Amino acid sequence: MFSKLLTWFLLMRYAASKEDGDDFIYNGFRGANMSLDGVAEITSDGLLLLTNSIQQKKGHAFYPIPLPFKTSQGKTQSFSTNFVFAIVPKYPNMNGYGVTFVISPSKYFPGGQVGQYMGIFNQNNIGNSSNHIVAIELDTYLNPEFGDIDDNHVGVDINGLHSNTSAPAAYFRKMSGGFENVSLVSGELMHVWVEYDGLQNHLNVTLSPIKLPKPDRPLLSSMVDLSSIMLDDMYVGFSSSTKTVPSAYYILGWSFKMNGQAQALDLRHLPKLPRIGPKKKSKLLTIGLPVIVIFFTLTAILAVGLIVRRKIKFAEVLEDWEHEYGTHRFLYKDLFMATKGFTDKEVLGFGGFGRVYRGVLSASKIEVAVKRVSHESRQGMREFISEIVSLGRLRHRNLVRLLGYCRRKRELLLVYDFMPYGSLDKFLFDHPNSMLSWSKRFQIIKGVASGLLYLHEEWEQVVLHRDIKASNVLLDSEMNGRLGDFGLARLYDHGTDPQTTHMVGTFGYLAPELTKTGKATTSTDVFAFGAFMLEVACGRRPIDPQDEVTLVQWVSECWKRGTILAAADPKLGLDYDVEEMELVLKIGLLCLHQLPAERPNMRQVMQFLDRNAPLPELSSDSLGAAILAVGHYKRSDDLRLSYPSSLELGFASTSSIEGSVLSGGR
Question: Is the residue at 409 inside a domain?
Answer without folding.
Answer: yes
